[in-house]
Design goal:
The complex is a heterodimer. By secondary structure, chain A is an all-alpha fold. Chain A is built from 13 helices and no strands. Chain A is globular and about 70 Å long. Classes of the chains: A mainly alpha, B alpha/beta. At the A-B interface, helix 1, helix 3, helix 4, helix 5 and helix 6 of A face helix 1, helix 2, strand 2, helix 3 and helix 9 of B.
Chain lengths: 282, 726
């Protein structure tokens, strides 16, 4: 290796290390707040904790309500139910719609595709009040089922676009061959196309799950029962306008983020392929 | 359609909680800590006495009113809720609270607490406790109680030490609730004879100047939040605190304290007069069991429940009989706050009072942080007041609009008919239409119900004016008001054009930073020989995996003036700490940094994917031709990246344009709404300024139109890119 090449490599690593440090700094800061006994209030840039304690975590995970019900457990269960439900329902809706948009000609197809994109532009505040009224008609206010329906439809446009883009890259010959061999269209779709789209499906599922897991404005508005609150709503109580319990909030933030981060990293190798071959490439 | 219906049924069976028969009484509140525990104790007593179960729901204070207003009319609200009296008039007008006359003995409570709950002769709710703020002192640090403000200031000067981050006094100086005692102590008035709020008065200027001086001499901390006040007092770094009874539950066991009325203002000889608030148990107008609800509310306001509240949460009971108990009579905290309440000024329960807060917040921030002279802050508040509560647009006739809508619908139908009319042509052109319909139906049904209908409903709202549950049709009145910038200058933060410009700047700056950082990192990480590549990539996408509201709150903490990590870094570099949210440029920068941290990984991943799809042969061929790295980038990478990158950029720009969480949670629009973007502005009109839903909807429609224009412009761009690449 020549001297210049060495310097260049070192510079590249320096740059990357600096960027990584900047990326991790806030995360370390949260960890520090979460494990610090009193709120760390000294003006200090040091992101490493001095006297770690697990008290905040114990308080978050052990939260119970006045009748002794284990709130954290219920909130975790609610979050899991909503996110899984959203992923399943959302994926089912997105996959079928995206397939039709990719393969069939029908009236209103172009308009439908445009409408999907445009619906991303509705500000959520415009939708909040009417969604409330509609869910009341459906008797789905204050229920996790209602939340699942809202989440899976609101994340639908992005999922459909991404999957449609991916389906477009899969040659039609494969399904046609399957149909020749006596499969129905539905079988060809389920047995041939879907297995080939695994990266895009993984990414879509990940997005649906993350969306539902992280959302709190709708959840806080639609749910009225502390035992079915999702985790972000439970967390929201710690950061009121008048009182912020930073230590508890930080611990809660880590607890809430951990599962979705784990999922994210498990699926991240699909991200590159799933995203770019798919939706973002209109 | 079938599929979606069965899904709905399935999902609701599986997940809905549903209300069962003989359901427990629902009680909503915003208490925390000791107050919450006291309430739990009282409801336990009620359950034991009546056998009726009570289900408590604690809500964050800032979301409480909006939640009540949404839930109660839809029949999913509580039976009883606890709220301060100042919004009772509004609740009564909206028909969400029930009068309790006939079921209450007014004489059992202090007369001023009864008056606070009376609207047009009817009494709403059972008064629980009196609340006002007073002076907490750390008895270890303070030996003498100041009588006058001159004496007070001299004491504070002795006890403060800016270098050690120690203050004589700490209180939430940016909140008008805490400033009110100063204003009234200086003989200021908040309403003129006709009852309209007034801000631009000499007394206002004097009271602001007084506080500004305290801050300039570093006797009180800047930008103090409730959390900061609490920590300073508990650490012994604030000798005195101005706060209410709820604060007693937050004080550490090791800190000895006592409570006293606020001192007299030396200049006027008047005592500093805080607002008097009356907390009450209100009965919902939609309670399914009114008798039981009233019983619960009454139970909470009298007897043993009052005693529990007084003794364990330091409340001052409104119930006279509570003082027959020795425990209450001899409780020092209760006595102290009762004494402080003697000077307090009952807060009017009028709409006009509710309108004071936002303009006053602006005045306080302008005077304390924004460099506005105290004498000019009142005028600032007055202008904001006039802009926020502009006169209602005139009622319009719906006829022309209905005719227009009818014509448009007829035209659309006519066009569609031509397509469908000849079945032969149709089935020839679209051989798969029936099958496609089956595939699309579930998604289309979902989108129709939960995206399309809400959109039409929301857009429809923009033609109405909303006031306390009453909608009036005003045609394009809201749009005219917004676009004509009525009530404020075009270059003021509240004007549509100013906010639009900020939003565009925000979007452009973010997208550029995301793409530049994302692309640079992707180019570096593409190198197949780079060591530790996997590690770097995993670390660099961490921000994407963190929920963005958590990111926002973390960064808000990091930008804190006194204790944030960013100022810590600046200090380590021997730079002056910056007060990030007092100037437009720094507040905007704080938002931008947060959103850049959050957003670059997405672009990086998109770029990585796109780079992978560029065939290596192209570069090899270029190298053979002796191209430089820049030429390779310019002539191969960029053009081939364009078709992938462009849609990502467009999508990213739409998301950023509507990025509510970051703006709302990091800068919160500070200073004075200048960093608000259109979407957060729309949210404020809907939920923070007396529920002006129609006006907010008009804002949202305008946002939609702006983005629609943008997308039709970008459509041409993408088409160009696709042509270029094919």
């Amino acid at each position: 290796m020549s001297g210049r090449g060495w310097i260049k490599t070192a510079a590249v690593h320096m740059l990357l290390a600096l960027t990584c440090a900047a990326t991790l700094y806030p995360v370390l800061w949260v960890v520090k707040m979460a494990v610090s006994p009193l709120e760390s209030l000294s003006l200090s840039a040091n992101p490493f904790p001095q006297h770690p304690t697990w008290r905040n975590f114990a308080a978050i995970v052990g939260a119970v309500d006045s009748s002794g019900r284990w709130l954290f457990g219920r909130n975790l269960l609610a979050s899991l139910a909503v996110s899984t439900g959203t992923t399943v329902v959302g994926l089912f809706l997105a996959v079928t719609a995206a397939y039709a948009l990719s393969r069939f000609k029908f009236p209103g197809k172009q308009a439908g595709l445009q409408a999907l994109l445009i619906s991303q532009m509705f500000p959520a505040t415009l939708m909040l009040i009417p969604i409330y009224a509609i869910l009341q008609r459906l008797h789905l206010l204050n229920s996790l089922g209602g939340l699942v329906l809202v989440y899976s439809t609101t994340s639908l446009p992005f999922c459909v676009w991404m999957l449609k883009g991916y389906f477009d890259t899969i040659p039609r010959d494969l399904e046609e061959a399957a149909v020749m061999d006596g499969a129905t269209h539905w079988q060809a779709f389920v047995l041939v196309v879907l297995p080939l789209s695994r990266p895009a499906l993984a990414v879509t599922a990940l997005f649906s799950f993350m969306n539902a897991w992280n959302e709190f404005i709708l959840a806080a508005t639609l749910l009225n029962d502390a035992t079915i609150f999702t985790l972000p709503v439970a967390l929201q109580r710690l950061v009121g306008e008048y009182k912020v319990e930073w230590g508890m909030f930080a611990a809660g933030a880590l607890v809430v983020s951990a599962p979705v981060m784990a999922l994210f990293f498990a699926l991240q190798k699909h991200l590159v392929g799933g995203l770019t071959a798919g939706g973002v490439k209109g | 359609m079938n599929a979606i219906a069965s899904l709905v049924v399935f999902a609701s069976c599986l997940l809905a909680t549903g209300a069962q028969a003989a359901s427990p009484l629902k009680l909503w509140h915003a208490y925390r800590g000791a107050e919450e525990q006291a309430l739990e104790k009282s409801t336990k007593l009620f359950e034991r006495e009546t056998g009726r179960a009570v289900e408590l729901l604690a809500l964050p204070y800032d979301a409480f009113a909006a939640k009540l207003i949404a839930a109660i009319p839809h029949g999913v609200g509580p039976d009883v809720f606890i709220f301060a009296h100042e919004r009772v008039r509004q609740f009564a007008r909206m028909g969400i609270v029930d009068p309790v006359d006939g079921a209450i003995d007014r004489r059992a409570y202090f007369p001023n607490t009864v008056d606070a709950l009376v609207v047009d002769g009817k009494m709403y709710g059972y008064p629980l406790s009196l609340k006002c703020i007073a002076l907490y002192v750390n008895s270890r640090l303070v030996s003498r109680i100041p009588e006058t403000t001159d004496e007070w200031r001299a004491m504070l000067a002795r006890m403060s030490s800016p270098k050690e981050n120690r203050f004589g006094l700490a209180y939430e100086s940016g909140d008008f609730y805490f400033h009110a005692p100063f204003l009234f102590g200086f003989k200021g008035a908040l309403f003129d004879e006709s009852g309209r709020a007034i801000f631009d008065t000499p007394e206002m200027a004097v009271s602001l100047a007084f506080v500004k001086r305290l801050q300039d001499e570093r006797l009180i901390p800047e930008e103090a939040s409730g959390a900061l006040v609490k920590t300073l007092f508990n650490d012994g770094r604030a000798a005195m605190v101005i706060s209410g009874p709820w604060f007693s539950g937050e004080i550490a066991k090791s800190v000895p304290f006592a409570v006293f009325p606020l001192p007299r203002v030396s200049e006027t000889g008047l005592p500093m007069r805080p607002f008097l608030g009356v907390e009450a148990a209100l009965v919902s107008a939609r309670s399914t069991d009114r008798e039981a609800a009233r019983k619960l509310a009454k139970f909470l306001s009298t007897g043993e429940a009052s005693v529990v509240r007084a003794v364990s949460a330091g409340h001052v009971p409104a119930d006279r009989a509570a003082y027959d108990h020795r425990a209450v009579r001899e409780d020092k905290l209760v006595a102290a706050f009762r004494r402080a309440a003697e000077n307090a000024l009952p807060m009017p329960n009028t709409l006009e009072m509710a309108r004071v807060w936002e303009p006053m917040k602006l005045a306080l921030q302008g005077a304390l942080k924004g460099g506005v002279p105290p004498s000019g802050a009142g005028a600032l508040a007055d202008r904001r007041y006039r802009a926020l509560y502009r006169p209602k647009p005139e009622r319009a006739s719906g006829v022309p609009y209905v005719v227009l809508a009818g014509l448009a619908a007829a035209l659309g139908l006519y066009r569609a008919r031509r397509e469908v009319l000849s079945p032969e042509l149709f089935s020839k052109r679209y051989p798969d239409a029936a099958r496609a319909a089956r595939y699309v139906a579930p998604a289309a049904a979902g989108i129709f119900v939960l995206v399309f209908i809400p959109f039409v409903y929301g857009a429809g709202l923009s033609f109405f004016h909303h006031d306390s549950g009453l909608y009036t049709f005003v045609g394009l009145g809201n749009f005219v008001d917004i676009l004509a910038s009525r009530g404020y200058r075009i270059n003021e933060p509240l004007s549509f054009y100013f906010t639009l410009a900020v939003t565009m700047l925000w979007t452009a700056a973010n997208v550029v930073l995301h793409v530049v950082i994302g692309l640079s990192l992707a180019l570096i990480l593409r190198d197949p020989l780079l060591k530790l590549k996997g590690f770097y990539r995993v670390v660099l996408i961490v921000p994407w995996a963190v929920p963005n509201y958590i990111t926002a709150l973390i960064w808000k903490g990091m930008f804190h003036r006194q204790f944030g990590a960013v100022n810590g870094l600046l200090q380590a570099l021997h730079l002056e700490p910056i007060s990030w949210f007092t100037q437009f440029s720094t507040a905007f920068a704080a938002n931008l940094v947060t959103n850049t941290w959050l957003g670059f990984p997405f672009m990086m991943v998109v770029c990585l994917g796109a780079l992978q799809s560029i065939p290596a042969e192209l570069y090899e061929a270029a190298e053979v031709d002796g191209a430089t790295s820049w030429q390779k980038f310019r002539n191969i990478t960029l053009p081939l990246l364009r078709p992938t990158l462009l849609p990502a950029v467009i999508l990213g720009s739409v998301w950023t344009f509507n990025m509510f969480n970051i703006i709302y949670l990091v800068s919160g629009g500070e200073p004075g709404g200048a960093t608000d973007i259109l979407v957060s502005e729309s949210y404020r009109w809907a939920f923070q300024r007396n529920e002006q839903y129609g006006f907010a909807a008009a804002y949202s429609v305008l946002i939609f139109l702006v983005l629609l224009t943008w997308s039709s412009f970008t459509k041409r761009l993408t088409r160009g890119a696709q042509d270029a690449s094919s």
